[in-house]
């Protein structure tokens, strides 16, 4: 199989100081090279969005231009709150019609409640997706791509740079937690049903060298939650991926990271009601 060693790029924003001497994720990644043993990408073109709801924009990312869906923003002087939303599945942040087409209440992955409330929404795509350069790294370089999406919103003339949030579901929630461990640019982070420890994914064929424990550690937010400096909320239904939420709750001592186990809910049903709140 081909091997590609990818140097860790400089993160756009980093934590000011590690908590109580705890090593932060950017510090742990500094100088590390992830070894890709399987070069994967999805070349399918992105679906064009309805022009009255979203536009396709280009985000300056570490490897080049990444496409993203930006909700329609009318001209005006008022600075608006905004959110970067990371979809689930893999490749995560891949885009599609569910971005603008709300699903049923029991599984609405569009997070359209934010858009309905006047919040600017940006759905990024990441490396190795569509025309974007690079290959899928599974929770490594994609962290930098999401941070770049946040920087895009910070530069938008209608967006209040102090009111930019981050949310994601499932693999998107896992990626959101890693971003929370890597930057303080977001005012709050909402993670639905994440996996915080890569070993909890079980035996999978990863594109990186999974025999290297450091590759796994640097993709596991659980090891770096003590350094999070942004209010971060982790949600999961008791009938969903509750084991990882319980693992976070049992080990986390950072008061900025809060977990909520939802009774009578699964991996998907919390999305619509929590996003409305």
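Sequence proposed for the structure above (277 residues):
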């Amino acid at each position: 199989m081909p091997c590609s060693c990818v140097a860790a790029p400089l993160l756009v924003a980093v934590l000011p100081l590690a908590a109580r001497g705890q090593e932060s994720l950017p510090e742990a990644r500094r100088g590390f090279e992830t070894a890709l043993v399987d070069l994967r990408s999805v070349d399918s073109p992105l679906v064009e969005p309805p022009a009255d709801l979203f536009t396709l924009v280009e985000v300056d990312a570490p490897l080049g231009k990444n496409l993203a869906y930006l909700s329609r923003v009318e001209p005006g002087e008022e600075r608006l709150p905004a959110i970067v939303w990371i979809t689930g599945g893999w490749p995560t942040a891949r885009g599609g019609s569910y971005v603008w087409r709300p699903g049923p209440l029991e599984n609405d992955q569009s997070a359209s409640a934010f858009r309905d409330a006047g919040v600017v929404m940006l759905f990024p795509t990441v490396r190795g997706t569509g025309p974007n350069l690079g290959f899928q790294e599974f929770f490594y370089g994609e962290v930098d791509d999401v941070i770049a999406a946040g920087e895009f919103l910070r530069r938008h003339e209608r967006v209040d740079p102090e009111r930019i949030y981050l949310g994601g579901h499932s693999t998107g929630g896992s990626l959101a937690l890693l971003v929370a461990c890597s930057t303080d640019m977001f005012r709050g982070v909402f993670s639905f049903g994440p996996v915080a420890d890569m070993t909890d994914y079980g035996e999978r064929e990863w594109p990186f060298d999974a025999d290297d424990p450091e590759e796994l550690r640097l993709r596991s937010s659980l090891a770096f939650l003590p350094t999070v400096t942004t209010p971060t909320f982790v949600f999961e239904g008791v009938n969903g991926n509750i084991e990882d939420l319980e693992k976070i709750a049992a080990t986390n001592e950072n008061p900025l990271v809060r977990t909520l186990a939802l009774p009578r809910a699964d991996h998907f049903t919390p999305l619509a009601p929590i996003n409305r709140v």
